[in-house]
Amino acid sequence: MMHPMATRNAAPILVVDDDPKIVALVRTYLERERYPVVSAGDGRAALRAMEEHAPRLVVLDLMLPEVDGLAVIRRARQDGDTPILVLSARGAVGDRILGLSEGADDYLPKPFSPAELVARVRTILRRAEQGSSGVPGDRLVAGDLELDPARHEVALAGRPVALSALELRLLETLLEADGRVLSRERLLDALYGHAEGDVTDRAIDVYVKRLREKLGDDPASPRYIATVRGVGYRAALPVERRREHR
After folding, report:
1. Phi, psi values for residue 18, rounded to 5°
2. Are the C-beta atoms of residues 70 and 26 closer than 8 Å to each other?
3. Cβ of 102: how many Cβ atoms within 10 Å?
4. β-strand pairing of 232-235 with 182-183
5. DSSP assignment of 109-161
6. Residue 123 neighbours by CB under 8 Å, 6+ apart
7. Which of 120, 112, 109 is nearest to 33 (CA)?
8. In what order do the strands lie in the sheet with 225-228?
9. How far apart are the first and last CA of the chain?
10. Which among 78, 124, 151, 233 counts the fewest CB atoms within 10 Å?
11. Distance (Å, rounded) from C-alpha 69 to C-alpha 47?
12. DSSP per position, 183-209
């Protein structure tokens, strides 16, 4: 149910958790920031709510009745690139990596700070909105790979590739560096602007793996993203900037 208040954007944030207290807490803090909120108490209801409301972002528990959170992420990634922030009691590093590998944009373990949750929501939405501004600008071209950051569009050999906001930002950061090696810490800073503790290096590896899969890039013989062992990653091809005519 949508809260009847003035909001900063018509599209809501979907909060999915089977604990009504968690839903109420998250709703309270998000609505204080004037974000409209809708909620769902199980995975099946979450999928229906995503179709009905087209949310700007999903705050998602993993341990859900009916359909579990990982299945919700997989389904969401088949259908689009809605940002997903996992909020789960399964906070071990392996669980975080699993959530990220399925397509989540961020992962906040329970118990959590509501203020940190709001800060992460702002960061994720800012990345998504910057990527979908639609303002013409430089396109980044590497071989048959083309990225238009302003329009949040990626194409391979002229065919569109669906990337999440986080994946697009990662690809943009690598292409902007034009062959320079970027450490995992530098890439994490570009994505979040804050450290991720003991999950840092592995999280970046998961993001790169997911991006490579979507680009059809073989790490053993990379066309787009090369691994520099012990250091980080770089664009595998020279990058050309092309200015779109206005």
Report:
1. -85, 0
2. no
3. 20
4. antiparallel
5. ESS--HHHHHHHHHHHHHHHHHHT-----EEEEETTEEEETTTTEEEETTEEE
6. 106, 192, 193
7. 120
8. 182-183, 232-235, 225-228
9. 42
10. 78
11. 10
12. EHHHHHHHHHSS--GGGHHHHHHHHHH
Q: pLDDT, tens digit, for every residue of 112-155?
A: 999 999 998 998 888 777 655 444 567 899 999 999 887 778 99
Mean pLDDT computed over 148-164: 87
Angle at 178 between CA 172 and CA 181, to 5 degrees: 95
Could you give the CA distance from residue 35 to residue 56 in angstroms, rounded to a whole number? 10
CB 44 within 8 A of CB 67: yes
Residue whose pair of structure tokens reads 């944009």 in the numeric block: 105
| pLDDT (0 to 100) of residue 105 | 84
Both tokens of 83, joined, read 């940002």
The pair of structure tokens assigned to 243 is 């200015």
Mean pLDDT, the chain, integer: 85
Q: What is the pLDDT of residues 105-121, one digit of tens each?
A: 888 888 999 999 999 89
Q: Encoding tokens for residue 21? A: 């207290």
Identity of the residue numbered 63: M
Rounded Cα distance between 244 and 138, Å, is 6
pLDDT(59) > 80: yes
Distances (CA, A) of 228 to 130, 179, 184, 195, 240: 29, 11, 11, 21, 22
Among positive and negative, which fits the CA dihedral 55, 60, 63, 69? positive
> Over 63-86, what HEC string results?
CCCCCCHHHHHHHHHHHCCCCEEE
